Amino acid sequence: MDAEACEIGRLPEELLSEALARTSTRNACRAAAVSPAFRAAADSDSVWACFLPRVLPPLFTGELPHGAAAAQEGVKDLFLRLSDSPVLLLDKRVVRLCADPPTQQAVPP
């Protein structure tokens, strides 16, 4: 089925992004396989920003890329980096972002 034959492809990306932001990280990833329109929406920074904590604790220097590398990294990449492996906070605690749909809060590993 091509993109023009798919009715869902006619919906604005902002609408799809808003709907996906109200689901879970798992559902957003699954939605990317539905159609090119869903993939674009599921990969948008606005969706992944909703899955991050509103306030990130201060991270230790070097935990995240800076400069040009940081500019190329999207919010989805940041979410995946924080949930894939533990990160060091300024106060020397180690935490990992937990992507459990009910809480989606940073918790100790």
Main pleated sheet: 3 strands, antiparallel
Beta-strand segment tally: 3
Percent range of helical residues = 25-40%
Terminal CA distance reads 43 Å
Strand residues, percent: 5-15%
Mean pLDDT over the residues:
76
User: From N to C, what is the helix and strand string?
Assistant: HHHHHHEEE
Count of helical stretches? 6
What class do helices, strands and sheet pairing give?
A: mainly alpha
Backbone shape: elongated
Q: If strands are numbered along the chain, what order do they take across the biggest sheet?
A: 1-2-3
Radius of gyration: 16 Å
Q: Low-confidence spans: pLDDT under 50, at least 5 residues? A: 103-109
Give an account of the 3D structure:
- The chain has 109 residues and is mainly α.
- The chain has six helices and three strands; from the N terminus they run ααααααβββ.
- The chain has helices at residues 13-21, 25-31, 36-42, 45-49, 68-72, 75-84; strands at 87-88, 94-97, 106-107.
- Helix 1 packs across helix 3 (36-42).
- The N and C termini lie far apart (43 Å).
Q: Which features does this protein show?
A:
109 residues, mainly alpha, elongated
